[in-house]
Amino acid sequence: MTTTTKMRSLPFLRRMTFASFLIATILLSWNDWAEIQFVTAAETTAPKAEGVIQLTAKNFDKSLSDGNSWLIEFYAPWCSHCTRFAPSYEAVAEQLHSAKNKKHKVKVAKVDGATERALASRFSVKGFPTFFLVNGWSVREYVGHRSQENLIKFATKTYEEVEEMPFLFGPFGPMGQLRSFLMRSGTWVVGMYENLTEERGLKPLIAMAVLCFGGIVVGLTMIAVLGVVMMSKMKQD
Is residue 92 pLDDT above 90, yes or no? Predict the structure, then answer.
């Protein structure tokens, strides 16, 4: 390949990279957007700030878009540390929800990480309980001693001393969305496999073949969409 040919290929490579990133972002965000659009109004309405607020995949993004800071605990029902700390965390919620600081309003919530695995993947949760302070796209993880007093200080004062999670790898960035997408996709595939083998009575090999065929169809569709985008972009240039 000559130097001139290489120079001509650079714009095309840049367009390919941009288009791939754009399509990936749209696909990764689609599932979250669809969940928000099609759940009922009762499910999507941000819950009242009375005690610790339970967040799920259905109301998570809707609730956090209210402009307040959120102190979020990822817990698991089988976690003994989480169970013992639950009364203290309720006290944290009561104190922060009753605070009159209008400039830095903090809501206290929790997420069942054992059930909401996609959300836990977005935040790269590796153990329970794990606490985060979220303000817009700014995310900070609490790593100190677990106590009522320390969590309140972290949520209202000392959070500024903690480095923010990089947006690229954070829960609202592309890598966080990708982790969530892969977790949801894996859960969906396992559920489909169990449905095909247990409820529809297909043999395991046939069920796997059906899932593989579906994956090929999805892959070809994505390639076709990418090709259309690139062709229209090249015609404009």
Answer: yes
Which residues have CB under 8 Å from 135's CB, separation 6+?
Answer: 68, 69, 70
Output the pLDDT for position 41. Answer: 41
HSE-up of residue 200 (Cα within 13 Å, Cβ side): 13
- Contact criterion met (CB below 8 Å) for 193 and 178: no
Q: Which string of DSSP letters, residue by residue, matches 95-133?
A: HHHT---STT-EEEEEEETTT-HHHHHHTT--SSSEEEE
Query: Which residues are within 8 A (CB) of 212 and not within 5 positions of it... i.e. 6 or more apart?
Result: none
Assess contact for 84 and 128: CB atoms under 8 A: no
User: CA-to-CA distance for 119 and 60, rounded, in angstroms?
Assistant: 9
Q: CA 148, 84, 56 angle in degrees (round to 5)?
A: 80
Q: Of 226, 237, 232, nearest to 16 (Cα)?
A: 226
Tally Cβ neighbours within 10 Å of residue 208.
14
Active site residue ranges = 79, 82
DSSP 169-232: TSTTSHHHHHHHHHHHHHHHHHHHHHIIIIIS---HHHHHHHHHHHHHHHHHHHHHHHHHHHHH
pTM above 0.85? no
Q: Which residue type is seen at 195?
A: N
What pLDDT score was predicted for residue 118?
87
Taking only the tens place, the pLDDT of each residue in 120-168 is 988 999 999 999 999 988 999 999 999 999 999 999 999 999 999 988 8
